[in-house]
């Protein structure tokens, strides 16, 4: 674990010291953007769609019992934009992309492709890590906002079909409670999660043991550590971002 942490610190220092976009292969970057973004879009939106419906199925009837129909959209919008969308999107990216990054880099290590890059005078940090890092930083906030819109739409749909709640009432309540600052904070969360996912998955891949078993072990470990780090970081960010904020429902 200490070796992996030291490797993360070395990668961070190398990234900031060699942060020159001209050195990054644009085609290589676009390939990873394709993997993180469009290739993960369907599963992210599908997950957000059903999470929104399940969340509505469990919560809406309680609001109907309290005769607080005009609060449903607001509570859902706040829950999705602040917590559910960033975290769920990160979980999808960890399982689909983070594990892929770790397995790719681990395979390159055991087949000595990393050593070949050094022999050719190519910096592996710039060639391998930076494109993956920037791809996560670019695409995670976009996926987060798309997941938020999908979750909110599926919640409105289920509320209309099952509970006969007018979608206009739902969306008026949602947009009345939603602030631009919430969107910014949610995007910042996604940026931080993307940075952590890329750093952990790449570091675990580069520090794998020279064996086929090490590839599987590194991949499993990177997924578990990434999930734990995202959950812990989410609590810390939520505490500092939202603990001192006033109730948004007062504005409705």
TrEMBL record:
The chain crosses the membrane at residues 37-57, 64-81, 117-143, 155-178, 190-210, 222-242. Keywords: Membrane, Plastid, Transmembrane, Transmembrane helix, Transport. InterPro entries: ABC_MlaE_roteobac (IPR003453), Permease_MalE (IPR030802). Its main location: membrane. One of its GO terms (cellular component) is ATP-binding cassette (ABC) transporter complex. It is a multi-pass membrane protein. The keyword Cytoplasm does not apply. One of its GO terms (molecular function) is phospholipid transporter activity. Pfam families: MlaE. The keyword Ribosomal protein does not apply. It is found in: Membrane. NCBIfam families: MlaE family lipid ABC transporter permease subunit. Belongs to the MlaE permease family. This is ABC transporter permease. It comes from Antithamnion hubbsii. The lineage of its organism: Eukaryota, Rhodophyta, Florideophyceae, Rhodymeniophycidae, Ceramiales.
């Amino acid at each position: 674990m200490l070796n992996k942490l030291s490797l993360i610190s070395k990668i961070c220092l190398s990234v900031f010291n060699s942060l020159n976009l001209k050195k990054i292969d644009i085609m290589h970057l676009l390939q990873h953007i394709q993997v993180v973004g469009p290739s993960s879009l369907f599963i992210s939106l599908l997950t957000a769609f059903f999470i929104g419906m399940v969340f509505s199925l469990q919560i809406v009837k309680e609001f109907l019992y309290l005769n607080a129909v005009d609060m449903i959209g607001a509570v859902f919008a706040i829950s999705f934009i602040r917590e559910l969308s960033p975290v769920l999107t990160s979980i999808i990216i960890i399982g689909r992309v983070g594990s892929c990054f770790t397995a790719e880099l681990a395979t390159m290590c055991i087949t000595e492709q990393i050593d070949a890059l050094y022999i050719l005078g190519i910096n592996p940090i710039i060639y391998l890590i930076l494109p993956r890092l920037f791809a996560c930083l670019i695409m995670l906030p976009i996926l987060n906002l798309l997941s938020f819109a999908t979750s909110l739409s599926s919640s409105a749909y289920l509320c209309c079909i099952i509970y006969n709640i007018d979608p206009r009432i739902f969306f008026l309540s949602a947009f009345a409670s939603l602030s631009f600052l919430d969107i910014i904070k949610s995007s910042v969360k996604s940026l931080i999660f993307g940075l952590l996912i890329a750093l952990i998955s790449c570091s675990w891949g580069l520090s794998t043991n020279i064996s086929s078993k090490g590839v599987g072990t590194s991949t499993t470990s990177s997924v578990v550590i990434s999930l734990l780090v995202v959950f812990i970081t989410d609590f810390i960010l939520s505490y500092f971002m939202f603990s001192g904020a006033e109730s948004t429902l007062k504005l409705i």
